[in-house]
Amino acid sequence: MRYDLVIFDNDGVLVDSEPISNRLLAGYLTELGHPTSYEDSIWDYMGSAMHRVHDLVEERTGQRLPDDFDAVFHARVFAAFERELKPVAGAADVLEALAAEGVPYCVASSGSHERIRVGHRATGLDRWFDDERIFSSQDVGRGKPAPDLFLYAAERMGVAPARCVVVEDSPLGVQAAVAAGMDVYGFASMTPAEKLAGVTRLFADLRELPELWAG
User: Fold this and answer.
1) Which residues are CB-contacts of 154 (< 8 A; sequence separation ≥ 6)?
2) In the 3-class helix/strand/coil scheme, how is 84-114 assigned residue by residue?
3) Between the N and C ends of the chain, which has fewer C-beta atoms within 10 Å?
4) What is the per-residue pLDDT across 182-206, written as a single tens digit (0 to 9) for each?
5) Is the dihedral of CA 96, 97, 101, 105 positive or negative?
6) How far is CA 102 from CA 15, 18, 56, 145, 198, in A?
7) Total-model pTM
8) Exposed e or buried b for every residue in 22-51, given b needs 16+ CB within 10 A?
9) What angle, 0 to 180 degrees and rounded to 10, lies between the N-to-C axes of helices 69-84 and 18-31?
């Protein structure tokens, strides 16, 4: 193993939540008078914290989203997670292998702690994540593409950034990992490879990871 810590993004890497959340986000923004397609949502918001949604809408329209926007959106997302959410294929295998080998790992997500927990419970991945392994953009001042979240996770886990590898599927997350001085493996499953510029390695199946980071 070439690294002392594996940092996973959550949405789209461990849990297959991006299609659900972006479908709902596009629908809710359109409902509020800000026409947004599913593709628009993926392009503008995938991998980002909620403040980016507020900032972009206000920047583009001069209008602020309702005060209860986050609460309403998350209620819809969590309900859909309970009905539909699945783990990304291979996620459980990779986590089980890391745990068996004693390799430190954690998750660092733009989503809230509650969103991470709801997704993990719905998919059964919660067995691999105690509170000490979960980091959210709520824990830092700036979300991705700023490096703050990844640097915070590395500090809390006691590992130097240069000894970390980040597993990401969004351009914003890749930018954050590169800015943090970490290697980053780009998961080109839902995201086209050309949008993940700057990654250390590209891969398309989580089950490829053990061979990639062992080499």
Assistant:
1) 5, 7, 160, 161, 164, 180, 182
2) HCCECCCHHHHHHHHHHHCCCEEEEECCCHH
3) C
4) 999 999 988 888 889 999 999 999 9
5) negative
6) 22, 29, 42, 30, 29
7) 0.89
8) bebbbbbbeeeebebeeebbbebbbbbbbe
9) 140
Sign, Cα dihedral of 93, 99, 105, 107: positive
**Residue 11, both tokens:** 């949405």
**Is 73 within 8 Å of 120 (Cβ atoms)?**
no
DSSP-assigned letter for residue 128 = G
User: How many residues belong to the chain?
Assistant: 215
* Distance from C-alpha of 88 to C-alpha of 16, rounded to nearest angstrom: 5
Beta strands in the chain (DSSP E): 5-8, 105-109, 134-136, 164-168, 183-187, 201-203
Residue tagged 């991705």 (tokens): 144
Structure tokens at 97: 């292998």
- Strand-pair partners of 187: 203
Q: Which amino acid is at 66?
A: P
